[in-house]
Design a protein that fits this description.
rod-shaped; mainly beta
């Protein structure tokens, strides 16, 4: 039966009211409520994007946003980020996260959440619950320093670690100050920084180093006898047994009998056999002069002349003999210098002087002196003598008086050939 002329599409809706008069649509569906029904409208959702190219033809989305680029617009996609979790249940609907990991249990998943507000999302944040934008991680483990309970990975918790930022599983602390040796700049607690301490692991605030070498007496064993110099009764002579038969604090190995200090063929002048003398000029110095004639072979008088300040600085120490030295006699002094083994070339500016009463008889310089070693190495003693051409009753050893003079000398004893 031919369609009625007032219902061209035979959909039972008269043309006059039919929103698609030539396209049958008895339901008159019209999503966007415009003048055209969906059956004949080329933009059903009225978003200005033609249905033929609209990625959501029945959901208005003028921007055609399609985050996951799957051809279905975000506005009508049930799984916006294509992570197999529907948007209504997805804790990160715009960022794919199939596992839905959510460390802090809030409404947002880790990949789109920044629980600590440090600009690093939880999924990559090494401390998701502790703000640490710099992501500092000293030990390179899974936890950043801000939330790591053992920053240096030495198996000692930071709260009790005496070097929390320096690995030291043994927690060594030599000076017991609760700062571990591994991170302390004064390990032995003697007030001297490790970098300049001559015994960094042994407390020695005065830094004594009386026997040469790079280490201080407190930790050095100059004679390699297993006894440290500070406690060794013969620091320059090996004597592991530390035997000291006379109990004078000087070990048998280096304790020279007083009367033989000057060596074979010489008498050592002691107190009672002579009168002690000493004097200085400006810039000169004498210390422990009495040691020259005492009965302890380990003691010495010290002479100093600051020739850098004034070349005329002098100092001397000497003895006035009970028995005069005859012409042709040999006499002198046992001397040493702490930093070297003396040779005659070192003794420029050292003179031996003889007097009779107050009258000077001879002044003998290094060119006419004899030096006989009594030991070896830095600080070793040597016998410095001259042969007198005139009788004398006073002997002196003097340093200084010229710019290249030795600045200091140790004088252990006065000697006269027997």
């Amino acid at each position: 039966m031919p369609a009625r002329r007032d219902d061209s599409d035979s959909d039972t809706v008269m043309d006059a009211t039919d929103n698609c008069p030539v396209d049958a649509n008895a339901d008159q569906a019209n999503l966007d409520a415009d003048a055209q029904g969906d059956s004949c409208d080329d933009d059903d959702d009225g978003d200005a994007a033609p249905d033929a190219t609209d990625n959501c033809p029945v959901v208005p989305n003028a921007s055609q946003a399609d985050t996951d680029t799957d051809g279905i617009g975000d506005a009508c996609e049930g799984d916006f980020d294509s992570d197999t979790v529907v948007d209504d249940n997805d804790n990160c609907p715009t960022v794919a996260n199939t596992d839905q990991a959510n460390i802090d249990g809030d409404s947002a998943g880790d990949v789109c959440d920044d629980s600590d507000s440090d600009t690093i999302t939880d999924a990559t944040d090494n401390c998701p619950a502790a703000a640490n934008t710099d992501q500092a991680n000293l030990d390179g483990d899974a936890q950043g320093d801000a939330c790591d309970t053992d920053d240096d990975a030495d198996s000692v918790a930071d709260a009790t670690d005496n070097c929390p930022l320096t690995a030291n599983p043994g927690q060594e602390d030599l000076d017991g100050d609760n700062i571990g040796d591994a991170c302390e700049n004064d390990v032995d607690g003697d007030g001297v920084p490790n970098t300049s301490d001559n015994c960094p692991a042994t407390a020695n605030p005065l830094q004594e180093n009386n026997y040469g070498g790079t280490e201080g007496d407190a930790c050095e064993d100059s004679d390699t006898d297993t006894v440290l110099d500070a406690a060794d009764n013969c620091p320059a002579t090996a004597n592991t047994d530390q035997a000291d038969d006379d109990g004078n604090g000087v070990g048998n190995a280096c304790d020279m009998p007083v009367n033989s200090l000057c060596g074979v063929g010489y008498d050592t002048i002691l107190a009672g056999e002579a009168t002690l003398q000493s004097d200085t000029t400006t810039g000169g110095a004498v210390a422990d002069a009495a040691a020259l004639t005492d009965s302890d072979a380990a003691n010495f008088a010290s002479l100093g002349a600051d020739v850098g300040t004034t070349s005329t600085a002098t100092a001397y120490v000497g003895v006035k003999l009970v028995d005069a030295l005859a012409a042709g006699g040999v006499a002198g002094f046992v001397v040493s210098e702490a930093s070297r083994e003396l040779v005659l070339a070192d003794l420029v500016g050292v003179r031996l002087v003889s007097l009779s009463g107050n009258s000077v008889k001879e002044i003998v310089g290094s060119g006419d002196l004899q030096l006989a070693p009594l030991g070896s190495g830095a600080g070793a003693m040597a016998r410095l003598t001259f042969t007198s051409t005139k009788s004398a009753n006073t002997l002196r050893v003097l340093i200084g008086g010229q710019s290249d003079a030795l600045p200091g000398l140790r004088v252990h004893a006065a000697c006269v050939a027997n």
